[in-house]
Amino acid sequence: MFYPLLTAVVMLGVGIGALRLNFWRPINQAVATVCFLSVLIFSAQLVAKHQGALYLIDRTSNPLPWIRLKFALIGLLSPLMVWVCYYLVSGRYSSRRDLLIKLSPWIILSGFLFWFPFTHGFKPDDSLPGNIQQGPLYYLYFLPMLAGQLAVCISAIIVAPHLSGVRKLEFRFITIALGYLSLVAVLAETIYATWPDLPGIHPLTRFFSYIVYLVFAVSAWSVTSRRVYHSGQVVLSIMERVIVIGLVGLIAAFLLRLLSGKEESPFVTATIIGAAFLLLGYADDKLRGWLKLKAEHKTAATVAELHQAATAELHPDRLIRRFEPILRSFADCSFVEILTEHGEKYTGRTTELPISLLREADFLRDGWASTAALSRMSDGTDATTLQRFLAQAKLDVIVAPRWTTREPTLIVGFGARESNLPYTHPEIRLLRELANVAESLFTRAKLSLQAQQAEQLASIGRLGVKVLHELRNPMATLKSFSQLLPEKIDDKTFLGDFAEIVPKEAERVESLAQQLLDLSRPRTYNFQRADLHKIIEETATMWKPRADEGGIKLATKLNAASSELVIDADAIRQVLINLLKNASEAVMRREGYREIKIRTRDEAGRVVIEVEDNGPGLPPEIQTRLFEAFTSNGKPSGVGLGLAICHEIVRAHGGSIGADLTREHGALLRISLPISM
């Protein structure tokens, strides 16, 4: 009695749930009717069993009326309600009148099937436990039911290819539960009615009857709930679990029987059961992977792509645009639009969504909404408004990051699938996980940009005094010349000095202003895969004429095996030019042989660039602040911002820059860049 009672409770819950979600939706009403009829069928079956047991004890109870009621309700359920669900889900009718006309043959047939069990020709009045008899109508009862189920299956095969979208998924569920499986169950009942003594036929009929109701419960939940499922994956998942549990159970039972004859030990039994559970988990994981029921591999690859994009693009707004094609490829949809929070609305490239609409439609509670799910809900104003918005924006589903208890910083909208199929609930769960990753990376980029801007503002404040000091000398020179000019307008020596010094000092002021702007302005990077060795060779070739002019030997030794890096080629070229400029100015302060070397090598997943010169080296007083702004080695030109800019660029690439402070002569600056960002 346990299984009929459990099945009745499940069907009752599904029926109530279908009506609660959307009472006025026809398919919800049909599904609820099937569920409630099933509850009545199992209730009649339970009462009949109870009355039959009492009859065997006191001969006063009569289970026959309840048996008649059970078969009468089954006659209503099949084929009439099967065809009702078929037409409602497939949409193969134009109006309620057209639906009634198409159902009229099945209404008449179900009326006869409902009437048959109450006749003497179905079961004689003395058909009681111990003297079970069947009338001629009992055998006739199953034939039209079998014909109706067969007709449903044939029609489903013809109609299914012409359906699309959520209707196609719902139709698959209904035809699996109320079509193919019900056909097998009715066929088994027909065989049992004809040959009741056939070995194993009675347990087989009971098994199929419970399977039909179980699959229908899953189907009803998928067709009426807000969660959309893919019928093939659900059935395949159920079959996979049944196969794994069955095989592991057989192995465990065989081992228990084999060892129980030799040694009766609780330890042996516990060991076998424990090993069976381990084998069950292992086999389930492997088989689900083989059947492609796991999406972890594709999800992990997409997460890696999102992280790579976040490393390559540091600006949050441009990072969002990089995320969109990655998510579109994962979802296999027409387009993806990420909307970020701006005040009381979320904005994207072409779409604006008020937060108030999301609050009213319970989106922030559920974390997702889809056109398929909203169409199944009650026709409330909030749900309808959000559904209209999704239709206007051409979005099939919008998702928020998972595990959020507040309004998220972004939501992700997905367009229609290339296959025109709706997004299933397991897929939406994965999309929310990816949205969670995207939000984390986006938030990190925003915080990083804010920290960078704050650091730049603080640096500008600290450098204010140094800027004034650096400007004082050229401005004093310009002031002196401007004051002396009226007096010495005819002094050719003065005019010669004026023509030589004033432009240099003005150029120095301009250079200082430009370098200060370069340091304070938020730099944008265009990260792409590029050949580092090619950039070094091009920069060395460009610098060689200047080196030759100063009698400097410029040599390159590029030994790194991995020169393909994700970098901003122009930014790295600027770093190399700054280092070559500093090295050239250093070696020009010595007499004799002058040399600059550029080398590359591999080091623990990174590429190291070394720029070495044989100049006088780095004075101890500047070694600890070499990469701070306005740190200079007494050069005749420049204001000491070059290495600070180099440090900022290299850090943006996820790398580091430093100097070898152990050398007594010459200088060696070393840059380390990651091979994969």
From TrEMBL:
<dbReference type="InterPro" id="IPR003594">
    <property type="entry name" value="HATPase_dom"/>
</dbReference>
<feature type="transmembrane region" description="Helical">
    <location>
        <begin position="100"/>
        <end position="118"/>
    </location>
</feature>
<protein>
    <recommendedName>
        <fullName>histidine kinase</fullName>
        <ecNumber>2.7.13.3</ecNumber>
    </recommendedName>
</protein>
<dbReference type="Pfam" id="PF02518">
    <property type="entry name" value="HATPase_c"/>
</dbReference>
<dbReference type="InterPro" id="IPR005467">
    <property type="entry name" value="His_kinase_dom"/>
</dbReference>
<keyword id="KW-0812">Transmembrane</keyword>
<dbReference type="InterPro" id="IPR003661">
    <property type="entry name" value="HisK_dim/P_dom"/>
</dbReference>
<keyword id="KW-0472">Membrane</keyword>
<feature type="transmembrane region" description="Helical">
    <location>
        <begin position="241"/>
        <end position="259"/>
    </location>
</feature>
<dbReference type="InterPro" id="IPR004358">
    <property type="entry name" value="Sig_transdc_His_kin-like_C"/>
</dbReference>
<keyword id="KW-0808">Transferase</keyword>
<dbReference type="InterPro" id="IPR036097">
    <property type="entry name" value="HisK_dim/P_sf"/>
</dbReference>
<keyword id="KW-1133">Transmembrane helix</keyword>
<feature type="transmembrane region" description="Helical">
    <location>
        <begin position="30"/>
        <end position="47"/>
    </location>
</feature>
<keyword id="KW-0418">Kinase</keyword>
<feature type="transmembrane region" description="Helical">
    <location>
        <begin position="138"/>
        <end position="161"/>
    </location>
</feature>
<keyword id="KW-0597">Phosphoprotein</keyword>
<dbReference type="GO" id="GO:0000155">
    <property type="term" value="F:phosphorelay sensor kinase activity"/>
</dbReference>
<feature type="transmembrane region" description="Helical">
    <location>
        <begin position="207"/>
        <end position="229"/>
    </location>
</feature>
<feature type="transmembrane region" description="Helical">
    <location>
        <begin position="265"/>
        <end position="283"/>
    </location>
</feature>
<feature type="transmembrane region" description="Helical">
    <location>
        <begin position="173"/>
        <end position="195"/>
    </location>
</feature>
<feature type="transmembrane region" description="Helical">
    <location>
        <begin position="67"/>
        <end position="88"/>
    </location>
</feature>
<dbReference type="Pfam" id="PF00512">
    <property type="entry name" value="HisKA"/>
</dbReference>
<dbReference type="InterPro" id="IPR036890">
    <property type="entry name" value="HATPase_C_sf"/>
</dbReference>
<feature type="transmembrane region" description="Helical">
    <location>
        <begin position="6"/>
        <end position="23"/>
    </location>
</feature>
<feature type="domain" description="Histidine kinase">
    <location>
        <begin position="466"/>
        <end position="677"/>
    </location>
</feature>
